[in-house]
Design a protein that fits this description.
201 residues; alpha+beta; eight-stranded antiparallel beta sheet; DNA-binding
Length: 201
DNA sequence: AAGAGGATGAACT
DNA sequence: GTTCATCCTCTTG
């Protein structure tokens, strides 16, 4: 089942980041379908979260889609190279988002390898937000897509996979400038026994 | 108009 | 562990 709008509209973005583990990310781009199981996420909760692009309701053309209704895609380029895929949550004008940091290849692994220019399947194919984005074919042009629409080339599904609480590991977020009080907050979540996650901090 | 630097990854040593 | 690729966006003047 496609994750419904109500899943994204909830207030607690941290809980949504946890709930997204074990869900499936499907893309159908250029007629090619790939599927990955989400195994690592990070929550960003502006306006109070200093690590968010939308801290203190900061609003620019780049992060405009963070203010869209929950269930919208927010993709942006990091370090000039990496296309990072986020899921916007909460109601319009509340800029909450969950960064998808890693997925496990499920369907069409050959295409993922091709996109990553690799020949053997290993964890780094889809571990890390930049790598996962490339493997799934996601680019900045996909920012603003409605993930709940049947016409969207990107959507998420619940396939009735249930994770126990002890299978989920929380840790601090990465890539943030140090000496920020938000740096140590454990809003990064991963599936315990998956080898397809990026390195802990 | 110019410059700094970023929610990273890969290829080095 | 360290470096660097690569470029767009935002800030400052």
């Amino acid at each position: 089942m496609i994750l419904p709008r109500a899943f994204y509209l909830r207030e607690d973005v941290v809980q949504i980041a946890i709930d997204l583990l074990g869900k499936y990310l499907i893309t159908e781009i250029d007629g090619e379908r790939t599927v990955g199981k989400i195994v690592e996420t990070e929550a960003y909760r502006a306006p109070e979260d200093k690590a968010s692009h939308a801290y203190n309701y900061r609003r620019t053309p780049r992060n405009e889609h963070m203010y869209a209704e929950g269930g919208t895609a927010y993709v942006y380029i990091c370090y000039g190279i990496h296309h990072l895929f986020n899921v916007v949550t909460n109601v319009r004008d509340i800029p909450h988002a969950v960064l998808i940091r890693a997925v496990e290849p499920v369907e069409n692994v050959e295409l993922m390898l091709l996109r990553r220019n690799r020949s053997v399947l290993q964890p780094k194919i889809t571990a890390g937000p930049g790598a996962a984005g490339v493997a799934m074919g996601i680019r900045v042009g996909h920012s603003g897509l409605d993930l709940t629409s049947v016409d969207s080339p990107i959507w998420l599904e619940d396939r009735n996979l249930k994770l126990e609480e002890n299978e989920i590991i929380a840790s601090p977020r990465v890539g943030l400038s140090t000496a920020e009080e938000w740096t140590g907050i454990p809003w990064r979540f991963r599936v315990k026994n998956s080898i397809f996650t990026s390195k802990p901090k």
